[in-house]
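Table S2 (continued). Query chain:
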Amino acid sequence: MANKGHGGLGKGLGALLKDRKITPARDQVQEIPAADIRANRYQPRQEFDEASLQELQHSIKQYGILQPLIVRRLPEQGYELIAGERRLRAARLAGLAKVPALVREYNDAEVSEIALIENIQRENLNAIEEARAYERLLQEFQMTQELIAQKIGRSRSHIANFLRLLRLAPDVQDAIANGGLSMGQAKPLLTLEDPALQSEAAAFIREHGSSARQSEELVHKLLANPHYLQDMSAAKAEQDGSAQEGHSTQEDTFLAAAADRLVEALGTKVHIRPGRKKSRIEIEFYSEDDLERLLELLTGADNPPAPSAGETKPFVV
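Corresponding output:
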């Protein structure tokens, strides 16, 4: 997730939005068709909370849009959004045909910068979205880390630390973006150069809910032995197998002793058939008289007759 509780952001979004010489007439709020506004191509935020949008939609239906959007006019036709994407999305959900907006003139670099700062000020970006926004400013607009830090009011080390996250494996980045991994859990993984090993370690950290300190310890072990997790998994499987085998041996011994006791008590062959969900006991008898004798034994009747001398094909009950 994006870091919380940061200080001021350079000149601030308000100052950036005023860094234009605009005549009072053009600086007035205008009612613009919502359908004519295109999304900001430099919007760093990819995820928008649906529940939050629904709440904003209900507020807009009741009170309207209290803060105008910021847009710029496109050369061909229509407008491009600069600031206020949540308001625009909620307004469209609310069915508004027109929205209040200020039309300003900004170049691409300024639009990207404003979109980034707007989201950071509202703490709307996750760590990966923030890192990709910095990367875009570096690559597309040839800004330096020092210049970005100055413009958004962050330290250069903050910018560098976020950019390093983009060296992680894609699935690890996804885990950070969706909240499955915290920055503290993920940063130690940067020491691992193998993306597959990063992914394996990240999965282990998520499964076990490892703390940042435990993540660091895991990385140290993987640096010493890249097969540490596989070795640990194999050892655990062997231990579980031994425990299961020991349990089976104990169970077999108990069942055999129980069968012997039934044979001694009933005077006939007895088999105990264990199962996963239910088990059964098979008692052999060789005639109707033998069955009657067993019934008297099992029901507690007195003076049961002796077993039949002539053994025939066994029946199973």
